[in-house]
Amino acid sequence: MIKGDGIGPEVVNAAITVLKGIEKKYNHHFTYTDILMGGCAIDAYGVPLRDEDVAFAKTTDAILLGSIGGNTNTSPWYKLPSDKRPEAGLLKIRKELGLFANLRPAVLYPELRYACPLKESISEKGFDMVIVRELTGGLYFGERDTKVINGEKVAHDNLVYTETEIRRIVKRAFEIALKRRKKVTSVDKANVLDSSRLWRSIVNEEAANYPEVEVEHMLVDNAAMQLVKDPAQFDVILTENMFGDILSDEASQVTGSIGMLSSASLRDDAFGMYEPSGGSAPDIAGKNIANPIATILSAAMMLRYSFDLDEEAVAIENAVKKVIEEGYRTFDIYKEGDKKVSTSEMGELIVSRL
Ligand SMILES: NC(=O)c1ccc[n+]([C@@H]2O[C@H](COP(=O)([O-])OP(=O)(O)OC[C@H]3O[C@@H](n4cnc5c(N)ncnc54)[C@H](O)[C@@H]3O)[C@@H](O)[C@H]2O)c1
Ligand SMILES: CC(C)[C@H](C(=O)O)[C@@H](O)C(=O)O
Ligand SMILES: [Mg+2]
User: Per the UniProt record, which residue ranges are transmembrane (predicted)?
Assistant: First the structure.
């Protein structure tokens, strides 16, 4: 368990409540160990993630993560050099554990259509997509520095992708599409970037191995527009690290709230790290009001992908649907007439409906 900062501990505790319910109902026993990462680790140890904690994480079956970081304008953590800040811990664990495939499903629950900010003629069609985001390459992991050249500061961030890095995520997206509606939209910026042109050529090569899957290429600026114009057109969105970061926040908002968007970071074996797509939400931290559903659904993904406990995962997903159908809402998806509940109450309601 990496509870992290801000709302992280609140939403992870709600997910643990649900996992404990699963243990009881299905007679399992999970062993939980806490690791500090992010701002809390900086405060405790002076670094956002200790090497010994990475080594320990490597001995576990899965990680459930809350979120890390603070207010990037005001928190003293952001006065530190970039490799000592909270986010460096997250990037380090993703890289060291080889978690290259980040799955971010975005589904509009029929009962939450009112929370979708799009006009009714668009939201009434509903949508159910998964963003498959490359997570250990690209701009996030290229060399970067800031130097003084000709008397002025110059900053650069390198965007690097190898064929191997692209091919493994492309294959993963096709495999996922085979189990869904068999459509992959590969998002790139091939009209400008070399890395995108390489990306596109590998998507086309791999497409030949998946003749049942329909493939389309879309430029990222158009994809940002299509996500609000007609989200129902998407099944699997395959994209590189930075574009996936941005588009997944956009997709989450059209589902009503980022507090609903779960995420799994996977590699080729069963190990995975599971976390809500949103951040530590410093603006609402400590108030027990954050929506824990993204974290609870991430725990369901953990049961499915790392523990091969599909029935238990479905039980959590159905319990979430039930509380939504019954009108229980945290503040972010609340409308008049609903039953407003806190973070911990939402966890308890879900566990009681397992
Ligand atoms: N995986 C992670 O750990 C992760 C992801 C994104 C951002 N961050 C970090 O979080 C910090 C804050 O970033 P930010 O403000 O840009 O993004 P954020 O996702 O934390 O918050 C954006 C908005 O969404 C709301 N929100 C987020 N999660 C919510 C939830 N569960 N329920 C209800 N509302 C929710 C927040 O209140 C805020 O208004 C930064 O330090 C950033 O680096 C961490
Ligand atoms: C906190 C940050 C480094 C992270 C990212 O950009 O990957 C977050 O925004 C996410 O989406 O998981
Ligand atoms: Mg993000």
Answer: none
Fold match, 1-100+269-354 / 117-254: yes
Please report which residue ranges of 240-309 form alpha helices under DSSP H. Answer: 241-254, 293-305
What are the structural domain ranges in the chain? Answer: 1-100+269-354, 117-254
The pLDDT value recorded for residue 331 is 96
> What CATH architecture does domain 1-100+269-354 belong to?
3-Layer(aba) Sandwich (3.40)
pLDDT band of residue 13 (cuts 50, 70, 90) is very high
Cβ of 248: how many Cβ atoms within 10 Å? 25
Q: What are phi and psi of 91, to 5 degrees?
A: -65, -40
Specify whether 249 is catalytic: yes
In the numeric block, the tokens 């069963």 are attached to 270
By most ligand atoms within 8 Å of CB, the mutation choice from 11, 67, 77, 320 for ligand 1 is 67
Annotated binding-site members: 94, 104, 133, 221, 245, 249, 279-291
pLDDT tens per residue, range 150-162: 999 999 999 999 9
**Rounded CA gap, 93 and 108, in Å?**
30
320 near 286, Cβ under 8 Å?
no
Pocket test for ligand 2, best of 87, 102, 135, 262 (most atoms within 8 A of CB): 87
Architecture of domain 117-254: 3-Layer(aba) Sandwich (3.40)
**Residue ranges with CB less than 5 Å from ion ligand 3:** 245
How large is the average pLDDT for residues 219-224? Answer: 98
**pTM (predicted TM-score):** 0.96
